[in-house]
Write a structure and sequence with these properties.
heterotrimer; A alpha+beta; B alpha/beta; C alpha+beta; A: Dna Ligase, domain 1; D-amino Acid Aminotransferase, Chain A, domain 1; 3 domains; 6-stranded antiparallel beta sheet; 4-stranded parallel beta sheet; globular; C: alpha+beta; two-stranded antiparallel ribbon; 5 strands; 18% strand
Chain lengths: 344, 452, 84
């Protein structure tokens, strides 16, 4: 089995490629070759032993589908790929569109659908939650400076002011809303999202849906340490049926296909979980799942090859991950190979 | 003598982390040596550079494809060609041969459609500017007048009274479909009841016949949901008209606005990855029309004024490299003979630009400037291309929409436009401008004339 | 007389990969770029280099002269070439 995986950028804002590969290789049934798809000659995963067996540069998602397709064809000729697992948000649209053409080449994928990618958009997620009775922070869209004065009374300060794609500020009064509003409209345009600020602790769930509504597995985690960039640097698996059932419900209602990460906040006031985000791929902490007894990446592999997969219904509570910094040493020759030839 | 090796300009590229992916950064793959089977070099040798090229085959394919997609989802479909998108006579004629009506937004466009032999009742007359003479002509010729504002509605009432005419009218409706900016400057608002008021005023006048409802929710729309909402709002309006006035309208016109595959500046992912397909737009519209709940024989026509999505990818602009330059900061700049005066859409699109001849594997990041002696003449701030030399050619793709209508004669003259016909022959469809053509409308006061 | 020289520590590999040890910077050269840099390292002067390229490649003298000047400017910009 030859499996290509992207996202070897195990940096301080890590992609999930390295933990995905570790998970798959950790499974006793796995035998095959892992092909790393990389974007930059300095992605740390390139220089780790026993991660990807061979690595190829592939074009950035912004270069267009044809170029990506051609590159994949060229690699496929050498490596006879059986499956590609893209793991970065920005890649997914492209791979979803290429899905059928890859299938024609005999390359399998197991991806969310375009509809899945769309419901998770910031302005659509709230509608999805409303329809299915899932708590989500209240949301309104501002489309002109005038709207700032018409923010409904039930929105209490502090508020979160968010751009449609990026950026979020916490505003403590209307003046701060105006400042944030001006900053973001200048950069990203309209609309601006005003979101209820919910005070509480963050919880994350890694899950895998088979596309029919069934949850193959789900493991909840509480972050123990968060970096100044908001990334979890340590976390622990927890036991919480409410959170687990809510996650399964989201997978069921969206008929989610592929891996995902759900981000929740547990309100201090009401003790209820609020859904903040659906990330349409496994998170960078996914290796915690097999470590706690649910090898979700390997289960995705089985699903992709059309095998019957029994859902997991257990995991070890109290499993901890601690991320580490570790300097890899390499020679300029390896760097040259990647930089000049695009493969190593 | 042994044959010499193929030359490529010597170049050195510095590696920057995040920017050292030579496979990734190049936005071209293969050179584009021919278009519809015709050699680009041959075209330029015969018709000069820059040169606009339009593919007849592509237009027909796009139009037939779009018709089929809508027709399989809704039983009565009519397209109307949006003149402002590209009103070259040859282009309009291809659309008309494919059974499209004309959708015009000025008296000039109206006359252009009539001159092409389009009957008045196959012309949809849109827009906020319809002067009195245009209205009289349009009413007499039974064209479908889409009223934009109350002042126009009263103009029409007055004209019909004084000239003893009967007018076929529709109203343009604007509405909240959840996308921004809201296009509320055209037509009558749905939510605040203005549209209903206009409808009541029309049906109360014996000289006006209400035949349709029209909306046009925006341009380069990426949301299919917005179209579903628009269709369902017009459908419920049509139902109210039937219930209250026992009038069954002839058509619902959803306008245009489907995004093409041109990528906007500032958009990271290529449009081909994120833009919904016409199928998806059609699904949304037809599901919105379910709200109609009419009997089969009462169903109104669905009219579409699709412009950009049908013609953008049928147009190419071939341009020649005039010079290579290195800017003071070491960055490469390319000057080509097509500027923003003929590539107006360069202000908002990242057009795909492909070399027209074989080139080496090495690429270089460069700015592309047009030939105008004006600082604004920037075709692209930054693009990664293979090394090009003076005299090399590039093909700029997706220029079929708006470029050949919004272009302007500025500093240089507008170039030839050719159409590659279905059979592979090439026809000139607009001659390059000449000094004479430009100056023929100018007059010099007697005392300013040179004496010599 | 050659007025250019390549710093002695600039290493060019067969793949066209260049490593500048004093700064840690790395570069890629295309095939002709590599040939020219190697010839400069061998202390060939511009006339000699021009003749050799003209002999081996399908290019006219004027274009080559422009390109070589531009190439030298790039090398200088990256401190891969010094004027002596």
């Amino acid at each position: 089995m030859n499996i290509a995986i992207t996202g070897l950028n195990a940096t301080d804002n890590p992609g999930p490629g390295v933990p995905l590969i570790r998970s798959i290789k950790a499974h006793p049934d796995f035998s095959g070759k892992i092909i790393g798809f990389i974007y930059d000659s300095l992605e740390p995963g390139i220089y780790m032993d026993d991660v990807a067996d061979i690595k190829y540069l592939i074009p950035y998602p912004s270069s267009g589908l044809e170029i990506l397709y051609e590159r994949i064809c060229a690699i496929h000729q050498k490596e006879k790929l059986d499956l590609i697992i893209p793991s970065l948000d920005s890649e997914l649209y492209g791979f979803v569109k290429l899905k059928d053409r890859l299938e024609d080449l005999g390359i399998k994928t197991f991806l969310p659908t375009l509809e899945h990618l769309n419901i998770r958009a910031k302005d659509k997620l709230f509608d999805f939650c409303k329809t299915h009775g899932i708590n989500a922070p209240k949301n309104i869209l501002l489309t002109s400076p005038n709207d700032i004065n018409n923010i409904p009374k039930d929105f209490e300060y502090p508020l979160v002011v968010k751009g449609i794609f990026y950026d979020a500020y916490i505003a403590n009064n209307i003046e701060e809303v105006k400042t944030a509003f001006n900053k973001m409209t200048a950069k990203w345009g309209y609309p601006i999202i005003i979101q209820e600020f919910i005070k509480g602790a963050e919880f994350n769930v890694v899950g895998l849906g088979d596309g029919t509504g069934a949850t193959i597995g789900a493991v909840p985690m509480k972050k123990l340490y968060i970096t100044d960039k908001g990334k979890g640097w340590a976390g622990i698996t927890i036991e919480d049926d409410k959170l687990l059932n809510l996650s399964k419900m989201i997978i069921e209602k969206s008929k989610w296909k592929s891996g995902l990460e759900l981000e929740f906040i547990k309100s201090e006031k009401s003790n209820e979980y609020y859904l903040l985000e659906i990330n349409p791929r496994f998170p960078a902490w996914v290796y915690l799942a097999p470590s706690a007894g649910q090898n979700l990446p390997y289960a995705l592999l089985d699903l992709a090859f059309g095998k019957q997969v029994e859902p997991f219904n257990n995991y070890t509570v109290g499993t901890i991950f601690v991320r580490a910094s570790w300097d890899l040493i390499t020679d300029i020759k390896a760097f040259e190979k990647i930089a000049v030839l695009g493969e190593i | 003598m042994t044959s010499k090796k193929r030359y490529e300009r010597p170049v050195v590229t510095k590696h920057y982390s995040g920017f050292m992916n030579k496979i990734g950064t190049s936005s071209f793959s293969k050179p584009m040596k021919e278009i519809d089977g015709v050699q680009v070099t041959e075209l330029v040798e015969k018709f000069g550079s820059p040169l606009f090229i339009i593919s007849e085959r592509r237009i027909r394919q796009n139009q037939r494809n779009a018709y089929r997609i809508f027709k399989t989802r809704y039983p009565k479909v009519q397209f109307a060609w949006s003149y402002k998108t590209n009103y070259l006579n040859a282009v309009c004629s291809v659309f008309h041969q494919e059974n499209s009506w004309a959708e015009v937004v000025s008296e000039f466009e109206y006359d252009k459609a009539r001159a092409l032999g389009i009957k008045g009742d196959n012309i949809i007359f849109n827009g906020p500017d319809k002067n009195k003479s245009a209205l009289i002509k349009a009413i007499k010729e039974k064209s479908k007048i889409h009223i934009d504002h109350f002042d126009e509605l009263y103009d029409i009432i007055e004209i019909c009274d004084s000239e003893n005419l009967r007018a076929k009218v529709a109203i343009r409706v604007n509405m909240d479909v959840g996308v921004y900016p809201k296009w509320d400057r055209f037509g009558f608002n749905y939510e605040n009841g203005e549209a209903w008021q206009a409808i009541k005023r029309i049906v109360s006048n014996k000289n006006l016949e209400l035949i349709g409802l029209h909306t046009h929710i925006g341009t380069y729309m990426m949301s299919t949901e917005a179209y579903r909402i628009a269709a369902s709002k017009l459908a419920s309006l049509a139902r109210s008209i039937k219930e209250q006035f026992e009038i069954i309208i002839e058509y619902i016109d959803l306008g245009g606005g489907f995004a093409s595959h041109n990528t906007l500046l500032g958009q990271y992912l290529p449009a081909e990855e994120t833009i919904p397909s016409i199928d998806q737009f059609a699904d949304a519209i037809s599901s919105g029309l379910f709200e109609l709940n009419f009997r089969q024989d009462e169903l109104p026509f669905l009219i579409l004024e699709t412009g950009r999505a049908l013609v953008d990818d049928t147009g190419y602009l071939v341009s020649t490299v005039l010079a290579n330059k290195r800017l003071s900061d070491g960055k490469k700049a390319l000057i080509i003979d097509a500027g923003v005066n003929i590539l107006f859409t360069g202000f908002w699109y990242k057009h795909k630009i492909t070399p027209a001849q074989d080139c080496g594997l090495h690429t270089e990041e460069a700015a592309i400037f047009g030939p105008l002696c004006m600082n604004i003449d920037v075709v692209r701030e930054s693009i990664t291309l293979p090394l090009l030399k003076k005299g090399d050619r590039v093909v700029i793709e997706y220029v079929g929409a708006y470029d050949m209508t919004q272009w302007m004669q500025f500093i240089t003259l507008r170039p030839n436009v050719v159409m590659i016909m279905e059979d592979g022959s090439v026809e000139l469809i607009r001659q390059a401008e000449t000094l004479e053509y430009i100056t023929q409308r100018e007059l010099i006061p007697e005392k300013l004339k040179s004496k010599s | 007389m050659n007025i250019f020289s390549i710093p002695a520590n600039v290493a060019v590999s067969d793949t066209g990969f260049v490593f500048l040890p004093t700064t840690g910077e790395t570069f890629t050269l295309n095939e002709i770029g590599k040939e020219i840099l190697r010839m400069l390292q061998q202390n060939k002067n511009l006339d000699e280099i021009t003749e050799i390229i003209l002999e081996n490649y399908d290019i006219d003298r004027m274009s080559l002269e422009k390109d070589i000047n531009d190439f030298l400017a790039q090398l200088k910009n990256y401190s891969l070439l010094v004027e002596v």
